[in-house]
Amino acid sequence: MLSHRLGEKAPKHVDTENQFCQHAAMVVKAPLQWLSMLMLALVVSGCASLKLPTAENRLAERAEQRWHALIAGDFDQAYEYETPGYRAVYSKKAFQNRFGRHVRWVNASTQSVEIQGDIAEVRVMIGYRSLTTDGQPIDGVQPIQERWQLVDGKWWYSKSL
After folding, report:
1. 67, 68, 87, 114: which has the fewest C-beta neighbours closer than 10 Å?
2. Does residue 74 sit in the same domain as residue 144?
3. Domain shared by 17 and 69, yes or no
4. Per the structure, how many domains does the chain have?
5. What's the pLDDT tens digit per position in 22-48?
6. Residue range 134-150: average pLDDT?
7. Among candidates 118, 115, 116, 114, which has minimal Cα distance to 152?
8. CB neighbour list of residue 18: distance below 8 Å, 6 or more residues apart
9. Has residue 5 been placed in a domain?
């Protein structure tokens, strides 16, 4: 910055220098403002497309995890989705004996979740394969209504409705 003596007018080039600095700051500031606005718009639009983990989404995922264990024949893992009360009364072996060998599940997808307090109804579409009496395979799909119960902040499979 140029200095001048007290009482003297500043030379003309000082004003020009200040104007230049102000103009340079505006030239730099404007693109930064636009860039900031663009970044904000991208962040906001990206957040809008994210699927936030709602209670219904978490329960739907838990119901599908249970079904994936059943489909894989992992009854020990599927047993872990039963309510604590059920597990206190029935063993893993008793749980496994509930399922016959005539039907094989091939896929499952959650269709809807309705939560009312600490009870929820979950509708799951189940794909299955079975055999006719003469041994021919039959493929089908069937909706199943399940009841889930919230115990100590966690959802547990209770029973089919």
Report:
1. 114
2. yes
3. no
4. 2
5. 655 555 555 556 555 545 554 445 544
6. 94
7. 118
8. none
9. no
Contacts of 123 (CB under 8 A, 6+ apart): 110, 111, 112, 113, 143, 144, 145, 146
Which residues on neighbouring strands pair with residue 104, listed in sequence order? 129
Q: Taking a C-beta distance cutoff of 8 angstroms, is the pair 111, 145 a contact?
A: no
Ranges of H-type helices in 50-155: 55-71, 75-79, 84-89, 92-96
Q: Which amino acid is at 136?
A: Q
Q: Residue 49 is inside which H or E element, if any?
A: helix 12-49
Listing from the earlier edge strand, what are the strands of the sheet with 103-116?
103-116, 119-131, 137-151, 154-160
Task: Compute the mean pLDDT over every residue in the chain, rounded to the nearest whole number.
Answer: 80
Q: Is residue 2 assigned to a domain?
A: no
Same structural domain for residues 69 and 138?
yes
The encoded tokens of residue 99 equal 């399922």
pLDDT greater at residue 7 or residue 118: 118
Residues 75 and 103 in one domain: yes
Strand boundaries in 64-152, DSSP class E: 103-116, 119-131, 137-151
Residue 134 identity (one-letter amino acid)? D
